[in-house]
Automatic annotation (TrEMBL):
Domain AB hydrolase-1 residues, every copy: 66-313
Signal peptide feature range: 1-20
Originating organism: Mucilaginibacter pocheonensis
InterPro entries to which the protein is assigned, alphabetical: AB_hydrolase_1, AB_hydrolase_fold, AB_hydrolase_sf, Epox_hydrolase-like
UniProt xrefs under Pfam families: Abhydrolase_1 (PF00561)
Keywords tagged on the record: Signal
UniProt superkingdom: Bacteria
Protein name according to UniProt: Pimeloyl-ACP methyl ester carboxylesterase
Length: 326
């Protein structure tokens, strides 16, 4: 009996430690505080009423220009705080949407496509009365910003891409997985798996300051609604895999700047590759210059000793380069 009590105590301690690592978060992040007030755009799509969350941050002294920030797949508007502050300090109005399927936006079961997400963002700008924007897209947001620019070139003043994914066609070397296969993988998400992925994929050196990113990404896995979140994550993975933009870079007709962390080795579907295949792909120090050549008049800015998220890993250098080239 004494041994059972001790065992129960150990289990309770371990459970409490796990919860301390990652609090339970709702899949629409109601209990995550964003840096600025969040509003919602109602959208009717595929017979469903959904909503798109966004921050609309106005500067104290406006310069008359607007910047729109598109987040990466594993993030939401919450990780743009320092970029918003830097831009508003220079007079820019900054619009920061959580794409449908991400952050505080609806986790809808719909057909996810970059074309459709671009239309949602166009509706947001039209609703807010914004005629022209500079787009800054990070990671998956870079693919979306590229698609938006191709669809609505007259509305884009400048295209800024921060370590965008999709610089190569993943279909040509990553084995195909169905959304159902991806869903089963997503269901295995845990604090440990997220932290390991972030440490190995996003940063050259891990710092405790990055833990909040893991806590948000892993916290939703404790929600009773997590299966819905996992399904949407699988659908958006499928979107990235099946809808490359790399063949259309030459069609971009607006000024463009490509910001690249030279140590970035991001590959969508990397876990499905052999070590030999991993070494052949996702080399941003090679992909960056190659992509810059494809985009007419594109300026390439490279950062040494930096991985996938320059605006966090080397914040001061990135913000300086951003302000100088916006």
């Amino acid at each position: 009996m004494h041994r059972k009590i001790i065992l129960l105590f150990i289990i309770l301690i371990a459970s409490a430690a796990a919860r301390a690592q990652s609090d339970t978060l709702s899949i629409t992040l109601e209990n995550v505080k964003y840096p600025y007030p969040v509003s919602f755009l109602p959208i009717r799509v595929e017979g469903q009423d959904i909503r798109m969350a966004y921050m609309d941050v106005k500067p104290a002294t406006a310069n008359g220009k607007t910047v729109m920030l598109f987040h990466g797949k594993n993030f939401g508007g919450y990780y743009w705080t320092n970029v918003i502050q830097a831009l508003t300090a220079k007079g820019y109005r900054v619009i920061v949407p959580d794409q449908v399927g991400f952050g505080k936006s609806s986790k809808a079961f719909i057909h996810y496509s970059f074309h459709q997400l671009a239309r949602f963002n166009k509706k947001l700008l039209d609703t807010l009365g914004v005629q022209k924007v500079t787009l800054l897209g990070h990671s998956m947001g870079g693919m979306l910003a590229t698609r938006f620019t191709l669809m609505y070139p007259d509305q884009v003043e400048k295209l800024l891409l921060e370590d965008p994914i999709g610089l190569e066609d993943y279909r040509t070397f990553v084995p195909y997985q169905s959304a159902e296969d991806d869903y089963k993988t997503e269901l295995k998400t845990s604090f440990g798996s997220v932290k390991q992925y972030y440490q190995n994929s996003y940063f050259t050196t891990w710092k405790p300051a990055y833990d909040y990113l893991v806590k948000i990404a892993a916290g939703v896995s404790n929600s009773s609604d997590f299966p819905r979140y996992a399904k949407v994550a699988a659908l958006t993975f499928e979107m990235i895999y099946e809808q490359p933009v790399c063949y259309e870079f030459g069609l971009i007709k607006v000024p463009a700047v490509l910001f690249i962390g030279k140590e970035d080795k991001t590959i969508v579907g990397k876990a499905l590759l052999s070590n030999e295949e991993k070494a052949k792909h996702g080399q941003y120090k090679i992909l960056g210059p190659e992509t810059a050549k494809k985009i007419p008049g594109c300026k390439l800015i490279e950062f040494e000793n930096c991985g996938h998220i320059p605006h966090i890993e080397i914040s001061e250098k990135f913000l300086k380069a951003l302000i100088e080239n916006i």
